[in-house]
Write a structure and sequence with these properties.
Its cofactor is Mg(2+). Its EC number is 2.7.4.6. Keywords: ATP-binding, Cytoplasm, Kinase, Magnesium, Metal-binding, Nucleotide metabolism, Nucleotide-binding, Phosphoprotein, Transferase. InterPro entries: NDK-like_dom, NDK-like_dom_sf, Nucleoside_diP_kinase, Nucleoside_diP_kinase_AS. The protein starts with a strand and ends with a helix. The longest helix has 12 residues, at about 120-130. The chain has helices at about 10-15, 20-30, 45-50, 60-65, 80-90, 100-105, 120-130, 135-140, and strands spanning about 1-10, 30-40, 70-80, 115. It has one domain (about 1-140): Nucleoside diphosphate kinase-like domain (Alpha-Beta Plaits). It is α+β, with helices and mostly antiparallel strands. About 45% of the residues lie in helices and about 20% in strands. Strands 2-3-1-4 form a 4-stranded antiparallel beta sheet, sandwiched between helices. Bound molecules: adenosine-3',5'-cyclic-monophosphate. The site of adenosine-3',5'-cyclic-monophosphate has 8 residues, from α4.
Length: about 140
C-alpha cells in the first residue's frame, strides 16, 4: 500500500553534510521524493512537532537542539513508507541501531541521532501538515 512519511535531517545531520547520503539511502531503497525543504524551525514548531514528548526530562534539550540550525524536511512516498523508513533509519538510540541503518552508520548519541522519521501513518499526516501545510502530501502524491 502506497503511503507517505515525514523524514527530517536534524541540524547535526545538515552540519555534517549528511543530507546527500541520507537521500541516497531513501532513493536506493526505492522511495520516491515527494517534497523537500531546507529551513530553520522556531521553538513553536519544534514544540508542536514533539508535543507528545512535552513531559520528558529531555524536552528542553530536544527543542534547543532542533532549533540550533537548519533542518531538511522531506516527504518520502512508497509501499509501507512509514515502516520502511523506520527500518532504514534504525533504532532511536544509535547505540542500539544496527550497522547498515542510517543511525547505525552515522550517529553516536540519542540526543543527536541525525534524522527523524514518523512513527505511524497518523503522525506522518500530522507532521507533513505541520511542515508543508495540510494538503501538501495529497498534492505531492497527485503530481507524481
Ligand atoms: P526522534 O525519532 O526524532 O523522536 C524523538 C526524539 O527524542 C528522538 O528521535 C531523540 O532525538 C530524542 N530523544 C529520545 N530519547 C532521548 C533522551 N533520553 N535524551 C535526549 N533525547 C532523546
Amino acid at each position: 500500500q502506497v503511503e507517505q512519511t515525514f523524514v527530517m535531517v536534524k541540524p547535526d545531520g545538515v552540519k555534517r553534510g549528511l543530507i546527500g547520503p541520507i537521500i541516497t539511502r531513501f532513493e536506493q531503497k526505492g522511495f520516491t521524493l515527494a517534497a523537500i525543504s531546507l529551513r530553520s524551525i522556531d521553538r513553536a514548531l519544534a514544540e508542536r512537532h514533539y508535543g507528545e514528548l512535552k513531559e520528558k526530562p529531555f524536552f528542553g534539550e530536544l527543542v534547543s537542539y532542533l532549533t540550533s540550525g537548519p533542518v531538511c524536511a522531506m516527504i518520502w512516498q512508497g509501499e509501507h513508507a512509514v515502516e520502511n523508513a523506520r527500518s532504514i533509519i534504525g533504532k532511536t538510540n544509535p547505540v542500539e541501531a544496527t550497522p547498515g541503518t542510517i543511525r547505525g552508520d552515522f550517529a553516536m548519541d540519542i540526543a543527536g541521532n541525525i534524522v527523524h522519521g514518523s512513527d505511524s501513518p497518523s503522525s506522518a499526516e500530522r507532521e507533513i501538515g505541520l511542515f508543508f501545510g495540510s494538503g501538501a502530501g495529497a498534492a505531492a502524491a497527485a503530481s507524481t
